[in-house]
Amino acid sequence: MDLLQPLLGGLALLGDPLVWAAVMAGTLFGVISGAMPGMGTTLAYGLVLPFTFVMSPVVGVAFLLSISVGVGYGNSIPAILMGIPGNPAAILTVIDGHTLHKQGDSALALGVSFVAALGGQFFSILMFIMLVVPLMSLAYYFSFPEIFGLYCLGFVALISLAGDNMVKGMMAAALGICIGLVGLDPINMVTRLDFGFREVRSGFEEVAVVIGLLAVSELFRSARQTFQWGDKSSDPSNGRFPPFKRFRKAIPAMGGGTVVGTFVGAIPGAGATPAAMISYQIAQMMSKEPERFGKGSVEGIGANEAAQNASNSGELIPTLGLGIPVTGSMVLLLAALTVQGFVPGPLMVANAPELLYAAVGGLLASTIFLILLGWGMARLMLRAVQLNRQIVIVLALAMTMLGVFAVNTRVMDMGVALVAGGIGYFMLRYGYSTAAAALGVFLGTEFERTLRIGLNMNNNSFIDFFTRPITMMILLTAILLLAWGAMKRAQLRRRLAAASVESGQA
Amino acid sequence: MDRRIDIAVAAAFALLGLTIIIEATGIRLGLVRDPIGPRAAFYVCGGVLLLGGLLLIWRRVREWNQTTTFIESEGVADEPDYPASAVRPALLVGSCLIYTALFTTIGYLVATPLFIVAALASVGERNWRLNILIGVIFTIATYVVFHHALGVRIPVGVLTGLFRELGLITL
């Protein structure tokens, strides 16, 4: 596949009115979800997943990705005008954007955020194509041992980089794999760990467990507190779009944010928040006015808004290129494709390139839609923040339950999602990565199957299996990543211990 | 976070790991033999849960005298400045379980408004009239979308006979 093909395929999809209808609905929903604190991309995906089952895979992928773009843009408006971050990644937008708003320069803050978010999104699509196509061509060299190595790398990266406690990350992944393995053995077809229940002899419905772990758990956690998001009012119409010369100096920061966002977004477990943080720090180091950062810097807003949106494209690189979802929302994206009959793995997009075109088309269409209408959406987003938080939580929960039921029209799946949500609640509260567990549920069966079939193909020899050059290289990378993560945590613990000793002496 | 609950969660995971290992010993080996076999993955994952849980408990107990009951959160912390309560999510889970149990028996159209009113009450929304209105509108809207637009067969329970007579459902 050449580099132009995905772009041309994506552009060709823009002629389909169904794609446009799905993208407009998805972007609008994403913008509203992004504006509501706590309603990130993963929860938004969890809510609308059942709707994708009746869409064609192409329209479904475009629909889901347009939500990501909408969320990335939507969280900036309440952050700037009300000082309310839609998600952790928007905290830096609050620092500089809300400061500018309080200084009476709301239009400049909103304008920079608009240009950065949509510019970052657009250019990151091109970077995504340039990175995913070579990655896909590697897929033809991958057999079972190499795919097993990739799964190991995905798990290790998620465990090493997500959460504060690596042991808890490993336990979360192990729990997820165990849940994923319940059911038929891939070699002998004997039932495993069904505890005598006939209903789970062929395993749990993966979508129900994953939605439970990622979405229901977050809704249960949100119910711990009762408060309203929007207890402040603000007028979004106090300015016109700022002239180019006012935000020209933020353009390099936006460029840097786009590059960093795409690469950091591709790292398992990273996502938009670290992408925004790193871009912000780099922009501050490179800036001629570093002292302005935190006090209303347009470069700061530009860097982190561009990085947040660019990470949407970055997340897709390993998800579509290798079949390894790197965030909770990407697990749900692949879950939606699994329901449609696709098998996640390095060959998924190589065999069905229309999924890649759909990703490019969806990201492009939602970016165009926001370029045309995004500026006028500020008022709508402020209304979203004024909604009653408790009512939103309950209705989101009711919608999720109905969505889970709709997968197979089985009440048992609702119970499974509830139990997974209850377990996920404690995992979220006590630092066990629900994303790692969801990845385990989703890839558990393939993880074991690739190992066992791979061994079978290599004369049942562990040496032959693990000494294949690409497998060995991937597994060594995984081991190094695990060691690096452990070392970093040990350093952090030592520093914290030293700090507490010093404060004790003081 | 409360270190006692942190220990309890770690203990629950360790116990689950032990249960998985014990249960895995009963898995039939089947006719096709391979070096891994159908039990190994459960032994490894169960082992990680068991040993990980014990390690976490040991770490907390070792630091017991140096820490207070509430330690720095390793998970998602609550919003500062707002009181948090575990009772609300517990009531919400209870409402969800009852809703799931009644979903087929009394049907979506009756169970859902009741669930929404109960769930809203459990998270502190006591405007009953508004809660009932929200429950009814949400139920009808989602039923129309899922049943008629998406073709999902949603059970109507006690209303099955009436719906058949009205020709709204065919089975």
What structural class do the secondary elements of chain B suggest?
A: mainly alpha
Mean pLDDT reading of chain A: 86
Please give the count of helices of chain A: 23
Say what oligomer this is. heterodimer
Number of helices of chain B: 6
Average pLDDT rating of chain B: 91
Strand content of chain B: under 5%
List the helices and strands of chain A in order.
HHHHHHHHHEEHHHHHHHHHHHHHH
Largest sheet of chain A: 2 strands, antiparallel
Principal-axes shape call of chain B: flat
Shape label of chain A? globular
Q: The biggest beta sheet of chain B, please?
A: none
Could you give a quick summary of the protein structure above?
By secondary structure, chain A is mostly helical. Chain A contains 23 helices and two strands. Chain B has 171 residues and is mostly helical.
Question: Could you walk me through the main structural features you see in this protein, from its secondary elements to its overall organization?
Answer:
The complex is a heterodimer of chains A (506) and B (171). Chain A has 506 residues and is mainly alpha-helical. Chain A has one domain (4-227, 239-492). Chain A has 23 helices and 2 strands. In chain A, strands 1-2 form a two-stranded antiparallel ribbon. In chain A, 63% of the residues are buried. Chain B has 2 domains: 3-66; 87-166, no CATH class. Helices cover 61% and strands 0% of the residues of chain B. The termini of chain B are far apart. Chain B has helices at 3-24, 40-62, 87-102, 108-122, 128-149, 160-166.
Features of the shown structure:
heterodimer, A: 506 residues, mainly alpha, B: 171 residues, 2 domains, 61% helix, flat
Element layout with pairings:
The complex is a heterodimer of chains A (506) and B (171).
Chain A: H1 4-13, H2 17-35, H3 41-52, H4 57-74, H5 76-82, H6 91-102, H7 106-138, H8 144-161, H9 166-181, E1 183-184, E2 191-192, H10 206-222, H11 244-247, H12 251-265, H13 272-286, H14 298-321, H15 328-339, H16 348-351, H17 354-373, H18 378-386, H19 389-408, H20 411-429, H21 434-457, H22 462-466, H23 469-505
Antiparallel strand pairs in A: 1-2
Helix pairs in contact in A: 1-17, 2-4, 2-17, 2-18, 3-4, 3-10, 3-15, 3-19, 4-14, 4-17, 5-6, 5-7, 5-18, 6-7, 6-14, 7-12, 7-14, 7-17, 8-9, 8-21, 8-23, 9-21, 10-15, 10-19, 10-20, 10-21, 12-13, 12-14, 13-14, 19-20
Chain B: H1 3-24, H2 40-62, H3 87-102, H4 108-122, H5 128-149, H6 160-166
